[in-house]
Amino acid sequence: MSQYAKNAVRILAALPMAGLGVACDAASTAPTDHSRHTAVVVTTPSAAVGSELVKEVHALSARFHSTEQAAKAGYVVDPFCVAVPNVGGMGHHWTNPTLVDPVFDATQPEVMLYAPDKHGKLRLVAIEYIVINVGQPTPTFDGHPFDVGGTPIQAPHWSLHVWLHKPNPNGLHAPFNPDVTCNQES
Q1: Burial, 77: exposed, middle or buried (Cβ in 10 Å; 0-12, 13-18, 19+)?
Q2: Which of 15, 72, 116, 181 has its CA 20 to 30 A from that of 29?
């Protein structure tokens, strides 16, 4: 097993995420070529909205408008809704712990983000990527680099929000959306 894989297995074995232990086998920690997901350089959020990768991921994640579909796919709800007064919200994080690893795959988001609508029903608003840092280069989504940290896990990692299902006035990749709250939205 490579040192890369050993580090990933060690980190993931100790990784608490929404009360769940995250397991990983050596095969899933092997470096993977995701260069097609990092080739396009985007300089503005508005340019990213129409990119082929954004369109592809939007289409792939659309099936998760139903939280039932998210649960069937292995996503587990965190009962806490994330919002900060005068900043905005993220909503409820539904994490698939089997996807939290050192490999970035744009077609496999680790987190689905839901916010309540005016009737209290959870609606898909965004996706989030979480990539464990085991010494590999910083991942990028369509040329946009991930943020360092950002999620309450013990392992060094990168994260990135992508607001594909609810526009964010702060930009496609901003962590908080001022139009998202944990209250029923009107």
Answers
A1: middle
A2: 72
* Per-domain residue ranges of the chain: 3-162
- In tens, the pLDDT along 21-33 reads 332 322 233 333 3
- Strand segments (E) across the chain: 16-17, 20-21, 76-84, 88-95, 111-116, 122-132, 140-141, 144-145, 147-148, 157-162
**Taking Cα atoms as reference points, which of 175, 172, 137 lies closest to residue 159?**
175
pLDDT single digits (tens) 164-181: 999 999 999 999 999 999
Residue type, 94: W
The pair of structure tokens assigned to 80 is: 């806490």
pTM beyond cutoff 0.70: yes
Residue in this structure with the two tokens 């086998």, named with its chain if needed: 25
